[in-house]
């Protein structure tokens, strides 16, 4: 399995910031891991053109489940594929929280991504209150069961475990806590999906930095990272990629 570092730029970046993407392209002429950058939708086409034939691949941050229609402000999976992007994040906790996205909706978005040939990066994660109440594995299990299409395979789907309380806070779970959830996700996927999903990549996300990446990547069943803030600059993102390359 090729490991993966994905960067989520969120609502950051104008055309001038594509210089950071260019720097990432130049820093990784032949990377030993897969790299995906998810810029805002306004930059998808230009980013995909800039990276054509090179790493990184380009992904979107969300999609509507329908292919087209009266959905003002939304973009669909076929539109994302048309830009040259190859992946899309679905179910990020910021969307689950702000827009009350349900597991059913995320399932539909992931299915739409698959139908357009996009890799669906499906995010799951518990809140601090859920962790404190001892509900972490129950919550993750419910989110996985509800949002992962039956047709998920290791080539069309990536799972990102992102504890909500670790996103953008500088806090991360202990390595044992990360390992416990990643082992649980691996067992869950193995039990529920076909053998084509056996080596589906499971990313950790939440305050991954150059300073903590190596220890997180050493945890079994951590196949890479989904990175927010530290993906905005090549200076922070490249050491994270190098830390993952150094794991094999
Ligand atoms: C994210 O939003 O997916 C994320 C992991 O953010 P950060 O790395 O900034 O915590």
Q: Which short descriptors sum up this protein?
A:
single chain, alpha/beta, TIM Barrel, 8-stranded parallel beta barrel, 10 helices, globular, binds phosphoenolpyruvate
Summarize the structure.
With 248 residues, the protein is an alpha/beta fold.
Can you give a write-up of this model?
Strand 7, helix 9 (213-217) and strand 8 (224-227) form a beta-alpha-beta unit. The chain starts with a strand and ends with a helix. It is globular. It has ten helices and eight strands. The model has no long low-confidence stretch (mean pLDDT 97). Strands 1-2-3-4-5-6-7-8 form an eight-stranded parallel barrel, surrounded by six helices. It has one domain: Alpha-Beta Barrel (TIM Barrel), CATH 3.20.20. The protein has helices at residues 18-27, 44-50, 77-83, 93-98, 103-115, 128-132, 136-147, 175-192, 213-217, 234-245, and strands spanning 4-8, 34-38, 57-60, 87-90, 119-124, 157-161, 201-205, 224-227. With 248 residues, the chain is of the alpha/beta class. The structure holds phosphoenolpyruvate (PEP).
Bound molecules: phosphoenolpyruvate
Report the portion of residues in β strands: 15-25%
Distance from first to last alpha carbon: 11 Å
The CATH top-level class label = Alpha Beta
- Integer-rounded radius of gyration: 17 Å
How many helices in DSSP terms? Answer: 10
Helical fraction equals 25-40%
The biggest sheet amounts to: 8 strands, parallel, barrel
